[in-house]
């Protein structure tokens, strides 16, 4: 079916890709927004005012990630070095004491000792604090884009971090909401249900009886993150000069990507807008099996976000708790939802790990934590279609061209050397797996995307945020598939999904594919 789409497109005239749905139109006809009093007006206000804030964050991230001698945070660097040495010394003392107390406790035979890479990553994160925990989490999810040993060494960072001291969250809520906590909430559970590097989440009930969750940002993060990003820019520059592996990973570019993602997460107003946009796309697409919580108007600030509470448990737990669920259905709906949000509406949840995808006993989905979201314009949307179809057809030129169209390469660059190198490496990879393309899965699609971005890094080109997030989502889909239906070939789901899209959006899909594959010269 994909081949027929490609061939049909090639024989026609190339047309510009269709425009994305207008957000204001979606807002105007949304019953989902009107179900929460005041949210329609808030969504319009966010849409009209926060776009400029996103643009400002992109510029700020680039500036913070650029090492400048006059702005090098020597204090932050010095403190990091001192704390790193202290934690390293403490670890050495601990291992020495462990050897003396129990010879078998060392890594020689028990298999329980940490690797050197993991120990060093822990020392670095402990020395750096919240910014380094967040960086470690990003590294852990960048499989393929960074060396495997790096992603494995930082995998532990995905675990929850200690909660705030008792009373601190309440102080932040009071400061942000103008000391209206007593009149706004019937109660707030003092114990958080989740704690992460940027925020923690509390279950609560509003005075009108609405069940909600309250996301509270850790105090003082903005200044700390700014100083740490400047320090990381220096560390990345030095590593880039002295380490071949760091040069291949293009650490300076990775620090800039990290800075943009973190700065966006630090403004909860942007998260509320992400939630509204993805919820609107979900409603317009008619995906009734997916729930998106609504932010509560008047209770959204830069550091506090109150939203509806949605049902379900993390999907890895649901797979064990509800073995009777139709696993293939869940996988099919997940693939359809991710691709429909992205390819038809140009907005998608950018962090679909198991903790952010909840499933209930009926097999319905709830999405949470919208701090990271991807947005693509009409041309980038068409490029993502080209990327997926290019992978399904083993079209290396199409894949590299799509990556270029997503903004990774300067205009006019000769893609032929990149295509040749990508084709050679991919052929070696497929031969090593000894599997035909038809048996590959979304994990392999993510690996192919990551391979393309790594090639770009080697050639010193930037890694677009949306491509990075889309690649991560492909890995996450593969993880969901392994939890519910490990025998399914996810790549085989692409053709039915595109057929579904062709039936549901015939004009849009035809125009997207026509625009994605111009006829040969």
Task: Please explain how this structure is put together.
The chain is α+β, with helices and mostly antiparallel strands. It folds into two domains: 1-20 and 312-521, no CATH class; 54-102 and 115-309, no CATH class. The chain is 59% helix and 9% strand. It has helices at residues 2-10, 23-28, 31-34, 39-64, 74-101, 116-128, 130-140, 148-153, 168-177, 181-184, 221-242, 244-249, 251-265, 268-285, 315-321, 327-345, 378-392, 396-408, 416-433, 442-458, 465-484, 494-504, 506-516; strands spanning 185-188, 194-195, 199-206, 211-217, 290-291, 295-300, 304-308, 313-314, 347-349, 357-359, 365-367, 373-375. Strands 1, 2, 3, 4, 6 and 7 form a six-stranded antiparallel β-sheet that branches. Helix 16 (327-345) packs antiparallel against helix 21, helix 18 (396-408) packs across helix 19 (416-433) and helix 20 (442-458) packs antiparallel against helix 21. It is globular and about 65 Å long. The protein starts with a helix and ends in a 5-residue tail after the last helix. The model is unreliable at 1-13, 103-113 and 517-521 (pLDDT under 50).
């Amino acid at each position: 079916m994909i081949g027929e789409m490609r061939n049909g497109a090639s024989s026609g005239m190339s047309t510009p890709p269709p425009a994305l749905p207008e957000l204001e139109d979606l807002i105007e006809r949304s019953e989902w927004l009107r179900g929460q009093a005041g949210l329609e007006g808030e969504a319009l206000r966010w849409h009209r005012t926060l776009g400029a804030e996103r643009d400002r964050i992109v510029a700020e991230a680039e500036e913070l990630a650029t090492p400048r001698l006059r702005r090098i945070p020597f204090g932050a660097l010095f403190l990091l070095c001192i704390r790193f040495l202290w934690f390293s010394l403490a670890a050495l003392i601990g291992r020495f004491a462990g050897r003396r107390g129990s010879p078998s406790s060392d890594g020689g035979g028990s298999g329980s000792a940490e690797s050197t890479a993991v120990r060093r990553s822990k020392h670095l994160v402990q020395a750096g604090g919240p910014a380094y925990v967040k960086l470690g989490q990003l590294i852990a999810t960048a499989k393929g884009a960074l060396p495997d040993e790096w992603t494995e060494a930082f995998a532990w960072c995905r675990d929850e971090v200690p909660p705030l001291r008792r009373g601190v969250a309440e102080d932040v809520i009071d400061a942000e909401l103008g000391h209206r906590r007593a009149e706004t909430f019937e109660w707030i559970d003092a114990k958080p249900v989740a704690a992460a590097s940027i925020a923690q989440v509390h279950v609560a009930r509003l005075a009108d009886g609405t069940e909600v969750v309250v996301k509270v940002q850790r105090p003082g993060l903005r200044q700390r993150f700014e100083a740490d990003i400047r320090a990381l820019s220096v560390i990345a520059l030095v590593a880039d000069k002295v380490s071949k592996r760091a040069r291949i990973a293009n650490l300076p570019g990775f620090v800039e990507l990290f800075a943009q993602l973190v700065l966006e997460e630090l403004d909860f107003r942007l998260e509320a807008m992400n939630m509204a946009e993805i919820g609107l796309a979900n409603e317009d697409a008619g995906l009734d099996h997916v729930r998106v919580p609504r932010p509560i108007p008047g209770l959204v600030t830069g550091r506090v976000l109150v939203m509806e509470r949605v049902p379900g448990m993390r999907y890895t737990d649901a797979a064990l708790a509800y073995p009777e669920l139709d696993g293939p259905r869940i996988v099919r709906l997940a693939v359809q939802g991710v691709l429909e949000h992205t390819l038809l509406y140009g907005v998608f949840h950018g962090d679909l790990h198991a903790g952010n995808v909840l499933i209930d006993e009926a097999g319905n989905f709830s999405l949470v934590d919208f701090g990271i979201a991807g947005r693509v314009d009409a041309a980038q949307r068409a490029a993502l279609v080209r990327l997926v179809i290019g992978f399904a057809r083993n079209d290396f030129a199409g894949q590299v061209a799509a990556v270029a169209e997503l903004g990774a390469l300067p205009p006019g660059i000769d893609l032929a050397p990149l295509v040749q190198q990508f084709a050679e490496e991919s052929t070696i990879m497929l031969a090593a797996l000894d599997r035909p393309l038809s048996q590959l899965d979304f994990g392999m699609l993510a690996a192919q995307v990551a391979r393309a971005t790594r090639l770009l890094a080697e050639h010193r080109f930037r890694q677009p945020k949306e491509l990075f997030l889309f690649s991560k989502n492909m890995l996450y889909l593969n993880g969901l598939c392994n939890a519910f239906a490990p025998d399914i070939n996810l790549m085989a789901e692409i053709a039915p999904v595109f057929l579904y899209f062709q039936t549901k959006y015939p004009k849009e899909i035809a125009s997207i594919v026509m625009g994605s594959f111009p006829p040969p010269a």
